[in-house]
Amino acid sequence: MDTITPTTTPTSAATPGTGPFLSVEDLRVHFPTSDGVVKATDGLTFKLERGTTLGIVGESGSGKSVSSSAILGLHRGSSAQVSGRIVLDGVDLLSLSDEEMRLRRGKEVSMIFQDPLSAMHPYFTVGNQIAEAYRVHNKVSKKVAKARAVEMLDRVGIPQPDRRVDDYPHQFSGGMRQRAMIAMGLINNPGLLIADEPTTALDVTVQAQILDLLQDLQREFDSAVIIITHDLGVVAEMADDVLVMYAGRAVEYGPAKELLTHPEMPYTWGLLSSVPDVKGDTDARLIPIPGNPPSLLNPPSGCPFHPRCAHRDKVPGDLCWTERPELLQGSRGPSHLKACHLANPDEIYRKEVLVEIAPELAEEL
Amino acid sequence: MTQADHTPEDFMTAEQARVLAPHAPSVNPTGAKPILQVENLRKYFPVKSSGLIRRTIGQVQAVDGVSFEVPAGGSLGLVGESGCGKSTTGRLITRLYEPTGGAIRFGDQDIAQTSARGLKPLRREIQMIFQDPYTSLNPRHTVGSIVGAPLQIHDIVPKDKVLPRVQELLEIVGLNPEHYNRYPHEFSGGQRQRIGIARALTLQPKLLVADEPVSALDVSIQAQVINLLQDLQKEFGIAFLFIAHDLAIVRHFCPEVAVMYLGKIVEIADRETLYNRPHHPYTQALLSAVPDVKQAAIGGRRERIRLTGDVPSPINPPSGCRFRTRCPLAQEICAKVEPPMLQVGPRHKVACHFAGEIGKHPEQPVTAKLLGVDDYGTAEPGATPSEIEQGPGFTDTWFDVNTRTVRHATPDQRS
């Protein structure tokens, strides 16, 4: 870790309790490679309060997972260059030493990974792995830790937890493994839980159970949750705030209700219109976003979305090609930010996008 | 060339033009003869004991008595959770597996027990699109040889005509025809799936089995591939068996949908009926579990039917109805008698003793009289079970679950 200089002591930062619970400011994660620097996350800023949920949406390679692993300090010891500020409960996590970070990881911040089969160790029993997470942060005997693991397995709804605690991960079904991962993540009551595509590998009925569980546990422990997904339906049902990421940057950020009903950025429109709706009109067209996600090694000039954007001609001049739009307040109030040059996005959305994807909604508005 | 060098125009021009053409919802051609009829199809995988003498100690009943039909040029969707046997069904129809029992009628021929040699001409008619574009293409072969291989195997065109045909196919699926000498790793996921589609199209099949064709792709790319498949269906009149777990995508693509649970079809109906008036409690639970973007306007979670527990093991499935262990409606009869596949509408079949619209499930089993049992599933002495049509298609008479009478199709409902 050459870029992180742990100079400030944690206590010199703002006192706990003031300011938001988690505040990420201008986070950058760059990976130097032989072909150049990959800017996986390039200037990400957001805030999150206790008891609320932030949904991060974007395609693979948009920097969602990289940003959240940076919060957990998982890039320490790799060649990644992390800069910016990640203030959790008044402490800048990037200024901590590796050892100090290790004491917080799992206790104050923890993560649920996408694929529970590869995230769990196949040689150790589920109970062993859950108890280990507890023993790292609590001076207790193995017996107490195991009892706590059984209690957690019970809490996340595993039947016969006292017997299943001695099973190996392969003996669990997909939904049960994901529950065990959640038990592992929550065993120390962390204030911040990052769920990286927690339900992508699961079936819809199991997904519904896991999402219910996450919400119940969040209410119980009053924790802040970051849920990373590409499923806008999950975001609509779970998140209070939504952050749409594209090419390592936030392109739209705002309250879920506001953002999903009045999106102001063509990429968000593209995401909404390329997914069929289970209740929608079957006559409605699926409008794909043309092309592929850009390479982060050599991102497009100006607005990174302009090569795939259908509305770039509505912006005067060649602004989209030459100047990168900043994440600024849109036309719908201070809480809804967007990075786009379009002057009247709401009108375009209503007149051109909504009539195609949900004609019945367009009439209502 | 890496992905980054692609400008969208590289491969989008032809397709963009097509995408911008007016869209009509996919409908099955009216009066089309079924191209594929599957009747009572079964596949049991043996479970072997460990040790030197590997005895068969059980059977995984992956597919157990599945019947359906696919109209020529139309599409049938097959949905269900992982492990319900939908992929096995697809692989049985392409004869990648040998069925344990049942019939697969393709055209006039039953292909369920055809020998490997006898299958070769059949491969020209039935092709498959695989789920994972990363593992279903040979990394050591160029795109040209992957797409051209079927032409050479079946000796359809002379050697010097293979390349022009390959380039034509690449153009059809929206790839640059100049890229025939590249390797799969040089393409992105969506482009690879297009290569897989081109390979499946090479022999101009009449039926394509698409096994989760878009679930490995990014959201923005999924729509590109779905639109491509729809265009191909319209252009070449290919019938599709579309296997997926995403209910919204199946609804978009297939005018007719079958829902599978633990190796059996529990409900099969036209799109409107299945998504708006499902009669099986499993279909209802499945549909209520799908997260909905429109929920954002209301906030919070949608009301849903909560299913408890996991899917039981197909080695030892529950007696009677296989869904009864998780079913909110289950009663005594469900454990004793297996519900038959009962036609309850012009194009609607359901396998449930208490079939009914959500919230309007009957108190007494609708099937009891038909099966000659009382309301608790015990056989009634002297009662004669009525014949229940168990064929793959639909008939012109059906049992109305609300009035409990047999109804006949009006002339405009006749298929």
At a glance:
The complex is a heterodimer of chains A (365) and B (415). By secondary structure, chain A is α/β, with parallel strands linked by helices. Chain A has helices at 64-71, 98-104, 116-119, 126-137, 142-155, 161-164, 174-186, 204-221, 232-238, 256-261, 266-273, 319-322, 345-357, 359-364; strands spanning 22-33, 36-48, 53-57, 81-88, 91-92, 109-112, 192-196, 224-229, 241-246, 249-255, 328-329, 337-338.
Gross geometry of chain A: globular
How many strands of chain A?
12
- β-sheet strand percentage of chain A: 15-25%
Find the biggest chain interface. A-B, 60 and 57 residues
Question: What is the percent of helical residues of chain A?
Answer: 25-40%
Estimate what percentage of residues of chain B fall within beta strands.
15-25%
Mean pLDDT of chain A: 86
Strand order of the largest sheet of chain B: 6-7-8-3-9-10-12-11
The CATH architecture assignment of the largest domain in chain B turns out to be 3-Layer(aba) Sandwich
- Supply the CATH superfamily name of the largest domain in chain B: P-loop containing nucleotide triphosphate hydrolases
The CATH class of the largest domain in chain B: Alpha Beta
- Would you give the CATH topology of the largest domain in chain B? Rossmann fold
Oligomer: heterodimer
Radius of gyration of chain A: 22 Å
